[in-house]
Design goal:
CATH topology of the largest domain: Aminopeptidase
Number of helices: 16
Helix content: 25-40%
Strand content: 15-25%
Distance between the termini: 34 Å
CATH class of the largest domain: Alpha Beta
Number of strands: 19
Shape: elongated
Length: 459
């Protein structure tokens, strides 16, 4: 699996990007033989349809990639990646691609080469691409590598990716970039005042832990917090089989912030970066926490447990409280937190929460620019009463089932000490294969954040 562009000096097959309304003009500039071949195949420039044109000896002389219409392109992204998946092996050079689409399409082409092959060989695209002129090749290769890291971690089942393996993955990234990294494990979590992380993970075979990575000595302080629940049975509020099947991806927030941290460090952004990952497995055992328990978080707030399956917000609460003690300029949490977010926005759109209109404006613009869609959701303060059970400060699972993603975000906000904060309630999974995104784990929101950070943090 190579997520790199081909050598720009390599011999290459011309690949012409042809929209439906540009086909006639393109054909008018070709030889009679090429024009006849294209017409005979029925090629019309339909979006994502690829066509090879042979020379007299049968060797591929050139290829075409249908680019559809603005209306059809608006219904998806990474359109040339679909062509990359069907073109024969070889090196291709693009012609006719609008400059404003070059970066997104080039990244999509790289990601079409991704395959998760730990347990079985797969068949990713074989067609290699020379990067379009003007594209920042090293940057896109870094982004593609980070996305592959995120996907690999999410795709790995819990028998091979528990808290120990997640810690090892973070250690490898820290070592690659010369970052400092430390861990608080097991009973030390109690001694160091991380009671919720310990409580959620104490019934598992691998110790719960807090992973703490730091990089950079200058610039604004940016802290990323990712939910690292390596498997979620639901605890004593046991999930049904249908709800447990994808729970290897419940560490998708951790995988995504680790990928984002890799991008930030590899690109040398001038920030003081901190990444906190509470890594646990929510298991059933004799010492599992119970419905009705009341726990005291790191910041002193008490939490009534009305559902042990709402554990992600608990481990994030301690991590966010810890992050706030360092007074960062911006805190961002990412988590596969609620089914309510999926019901509202589906699997392809990452909901996020922020109280900062400037942050939202910058993020929305960046997301559109890099084809990493997000959607702002409200920190709706009147719903605060829904997370206040009366017997304790907070309720981890309000009854009624309404506004589940919003109430989870409001819960997390209680642990941020009023500091600048954004929360992403991601899905981390592609249920049906799409261009550049095979079925399985996927990063959400990280590329949009990377593109927005220079404006948000005045870098």
């Amino acid at each position: 699996m190579s997520l790199r562009f081909a050598d720009p000096d390599s011999p290459a097959i011309p690949l012409h990007v042809v929209p439906e309304d540009g086909l006639d003009d393109w054909l008018a500039g070709q030889s009679a033989g090429v024009a006849a071949w294209v017409r005979a195949t029925g090629f019309t420039g339909t979006l994502a349809r690829a066509l090879v044109v042979p020379d007299a000896s049968g060797v591929v002389a050139l290829a075409l990639a249908g680019y559809g219409t603005p209306a059809t392109r608006a219904r998806g992204r990474f359109h040339l990646a679909a062509c990359a998946a069907t073109l024969p092996e070889g090196t291709y050079r693009l012609h006719g691609l609008p400059h404003e689409h070059a970066e997104t399409e080039a990244l999509g082409w790289l990601l079409s080469h991704y395959a998760y092959e730990r347990y079985r060989a797969q068949s990713p695209a074989k067609a290699r691409l020379i990067a379009p002129e003007g594209v920042d090749t090293p940057r896109l290769e870094i982004i593609a590598a980070a996305e592959a890291l995120t996907r690999d971690l999410i795709n790995t089942p819990a028998n091979d990716l528990g808290p120990d393996a997640l810690e090892a993955a973070c250690t490898a990234v820290a070592s690659q970039h010369g970052a400092g990294i430390s861990f608080i494990r097991g009973a030390d979590l109690l001694h160091r005042n991380f009671p919720l992380i310990h409580t959620v993970g104490r019934a598992a075979s691998e110790e719960p832990r807090l992973i703490d990575m730091r990089w950079g000595d200058n610039g604004p302080k940016l802290t990323l917090v990712g939910k690292g629940v390596c498997f979620d049975t639901g605890g004593l509020n046991l999930k049904p089989a249908s709800g447990m099947g994808l729970m290897k991806k419940d560490m998708g927030g951790a995988a995504t912030v680790l990928g984002l941290a890799h991008m930030i460090m590899a690109l040398g952004l001038p920030v003081q970066l901190r990444m906190l990952i509470p890594a646990v497995e929510n298991s059933v055992g004799s010492d599992a926490f119970r419905p009705g328990d009341i726990l005291t978080a790191r910041n002193g707030l008490t939490v009534e447990i009305n559902n042990t399956d709402a554990e992600g917000r608990l481990v994030l609460a301690d991590a966010l409280a810890c992050a706030a003690e360092d007074a960062p300029d911006l805190m961002i949490s990412m988590a596969t937190l609620t089914g309510a977010a999926r019901v509202a926005l589906g699997p392809d759109l990452a909901p996020y929460y922020t109280g900062d209109a400037q942050f939202a404006t910058a993020l929305d613009a960046a997301a559109a620019r890099v084809a990493d869609p997000v959607w702002r959701m409200p920190f709706h303060t009147p719903y605060e009463t829904m997370i206040e059970p009366g017997i304790a400060d907070l309720d981890n699972a309000p009854s009624g089932g309404m506004a589940g993603s919003i109430t989870a975000a409001l819960f997390l906000r209680r642990f941020t000490a009023g500091l600048p904060y954004a929360h992403f309630d991601i899905y981390g999974w592609i249920p049906m294969a799409a261009p550049a995104r095979p079925k399985g784990g996927v990063g959400m929101g990280a590329r949009a954040l990377l593109a927005a950070l220079p404006e948000v943090l005045n870098l």
